Amino acid sequence: MTLGVQTACLEQYPLEEVLDFLQKTGIGQVELISGHLMYKTPAYCEDVAAEVHERGMTISGYVWDGNGAIPWFQGRRFRAMEPGGVQDAIECIRQNVVVTAALGGSHLVVIEPRGPEEGLNEPAAWQQLVTAYREGAAIAAEAGVRLVNEFHPPGDFASTPERAIALIDEVDSPNFTACLDFCHAEVMAPGDAEGFIRRLGVERIGHIHIAGGDSHPHMHRAVGTGEVDAIRLLAVLREIGYDANYSLCLYGNPLPRRAIRQSVDYLRANGYFVA
């Protein structure tokens, strides 16, 4: 297994500085956020990928926040649940798949939009979201990119274990799975993140965001701190057969570089991601 870092927690630093820091910390993969790409053209993305590769790292994937909850992610809003918004949502996925492929990433993380807009009833909103993800998954598959949905509780449409599983099952595509964030899992299933992982099963998990934390959904603490037992959750993932990508996601941490170093040391001391 290779440990990556999602760059959201380092958004305040220039990309070149971020890459230099991650290289010195011994990180092997980078999961880029849209806010770290000044332009989204294929040529620009290829240049960014070259900078990453020169430092001996790879790009695991790309994260697009389509609900606008995190302003610095930039980009178009994901309008899957707005009246008449399905085709625009599919086009947004298509554009972000192009970016992901140009970066050389294997997965595109879409941060699920918030609940249905005013004027759209819930059953219709749900079906629109399913349609957008089903079509988007097919587009991503053609480009060799996996589409993964990150559930962002509270407030997201599928922010309970039952609804998260139902969304993946109704999209019914092998190319559409969950990005499981340890901190979010603890919020979605308080005290039973392990059970949530087992219920999802390896077939519904496409990427992992490792973090420490507690009941606050956006305060991702260093691994080994807070209520989240990351080592136990990693052991469960190993038990169910998960062997794809992992990224540290420490968004919201006030001292991100220190938290990354602390997390890497803690994980390696417990036998994970040992170089």
Task: Give your account of this protein's structure.
This protein has one domain: TIM Barrel, CATH 3.20.20.150. Helix 4 links the parallel strand 4 and strand 5. The protein is globular. The chain has nine helices and eight strands. An eight-stranded parallel beta barrel has the order 1-2-3-4-5-6-7-8, surrounded by five helices. The chain is 41% helix and 15% strand. It has 275 residues and is of the alpha/beta class. Helix 3 packs parallel to helix 4 and helix 7 runs parallel beside helix 8.
Short description:
This protein is α/β, with parallel strands linked by helices and 275 residues long. It contains 9 helices and 8 strands. The protein has helices at residues 15-25, 42-54, 86-103, 122-142, 161-171, 182-188, 193-200, 230-240, 256-269, and strands spanning 3-6, 29-33, 58-65, 107-111, 146-150, 176-181, 205-210, 246-248.
Which descriptors apply to this entry?
alpha/beta, 275 residues, TIM Barrel, 8-stranded parallel barrel, 8 strands, 15% strand
Question: How does the SSE layout of this entry go?
Answer:
Elements: E1 3-6, H1 15-25, E2 29-33, H2 42-54, E3 58-65, H3 86-103, E4 107-111, H4 122-142, E5 146-150, H5 161-171, E6 176-181, H6 182-188, H7 193-200, E7 205-210, H8 230-240, E8 246-248, H9 256-269
Parallel strand pairs: 1-2, 1-8, 2-3, 3-4, 4-5, 5-6, 6-7, 7-8
Give the % helix.
Answer: 40-55%
Strand order of the largest sheet: 1-2-3-4-5-6-7-8
Which value, in Å, is the CA radius of gyration?
17 Å
Could you tell me the mean pLDDT? 90
Low-confidence stretches: 68-74
The total strand number stands at 8
Helices, by number, come to 9
Main CATH class:
Alpha Beta
CATH architecture: Alpha-Beta Barrel
Distance between the amino and carboxyl termini: 10 Å
Total number of domains: 1
Shape: globular
